[in-house]
Amino acid sequence: MASLNAYEVLEQLVTLKEDARSRSPGELSRVENVSEEFFQLRVPRNSEILDVAAGSGILSAKLQTGGYMNIDALDGDLQALRRLQALRLYRNHICRAVDGILSTGLREETYDVVITAGGFAADAINPLDVTEMLRILKPEGHLLWTMRTVKDEGTAAFSSFDANLNGLQRAGRCKVIKRKQFVDPDTNSVGVFYLVQRLVGSLPDYVNMEIPSELKKQISDILVDTSDPLNRVKFYDDWCDKYDEDLVIVGNYTGHIKCVEAFVKLGLNRNVTILDLAAGTGLLGTEVGKHGYENVDGLDASLGMLGQARKQATYRDYIVAMVDGLGSIPINDETYDVVMSSNGFAPGQIYPTAIPEILRVMRPGGYLLWTMREGYQQRRPKVCPFGC
What we know:
Largest sheet: 7 strands, mixed
Distance between the termini: 55 Å
Number of strands: 12
Strand content: 15-25%
Order of helices and strands: HHEHEHEEHEHHHEEHHHHHEHEHEEHEH
Helix content: 25-40%
Strand order of the largest sheet: 3-2-1-4-5-7-6
Shape: elongated
Oligomer: single chain
Number of helices: 17
Radius of gyration: 24 Å
């Protein structure tokens, strides 16, 4: 199907703008901010561009008025893509959702520019999947997007968005060139624009979604029922400096976020007392704190891990202990309203047999929440009580 000429593009743009005003208040300002910042980059007219969560196609029409024609659409909604095909606003139409590393099915370093106007949203693309967008960018390529404010999105994943971007920047993966707020003139709502550049260098961790092979083997050796407790503690002590980068950035770990999301839905008041089991460097504790909960203690067998959490002032108290049988937690009965654990229940870590001890330190009516790796309860006998 032939592409549109300049006059037809302008006609489509007028129609799409009128439709957006009536159908989706706020969309025009998101599109205008992305397109204006894009034009300021002055990238070559033959640049390869991907519009993620393409939706109505208005962003492509806007860019085509500037002479950019090599624009592909990616959207998880097949019906939306069929509408876009009829409009002839894109070169290629890709029906894939952005949902983790390699989820787009696209080769690494395919595009010069990746754009999305409102694609990052609580009901659309998870902000942690910014790594997949970086993966398909060419070195020195640009990623531009607009979204609602973190407060308006209101999820734990969005609360850690800037922290994750800063982590990627510190790791030398990207550079945050611009971040600005804007006000939509029609709705008076506040939005945020980001411009990020992928830095030169390979991204093998994004491509393979694996941590280094040596570390992977060490983790496999530790996460077994027969591993020595002292060796486990030493391993985590040695790992504590790079734990957050290896687990969250390279491993794309989100268990702490899922756990906190479930906790927030309980709607408990801000003065409840919380214990984070297998607290590590404080990933879960930090997420809880973002929601205004301050009475949070962290417990871990690794002094090194807790030392990293202490640097961030994550917890009220820092408790060094191994969770096992009754009396193993050095805490009085009925101390906490909530006990949470992200990845603590695992072979060689905390077992279901420790639940009576955990319940001991909980107040009547309290909540126990945890996330764990899928499949442990089927493959590991000592984890079997969770469901065989």
